[in-house]
Amino acid sequence: MKPLDIVRTPGGGIALITETNDEGGQARISYIRGCNPKHEYNAWWRTNQLTVVDNLPRLLAGAMYNGFGRGQSDVEHFFGSTNTE
Question: Whole-prediction pTM value?
């Protein structure tokens, strides 16, 4: 996991990783507005408690590529496919 990954928490919240420490073993998250149904904490989570759903750079690149070229395959090459689960 790395900063800008979008993750799901054990309680079903959806958040953005803002930083990591402990050599990537812990992540601080910031919930996406309205996506914290169980009012979980923002502080440090063990990364094994979180599930990566997507990442912000891939979403941005996917939204901006030109559909007439090989843009989609480049996005998948550099950032992974859209199916990360």
Answer: 0.80
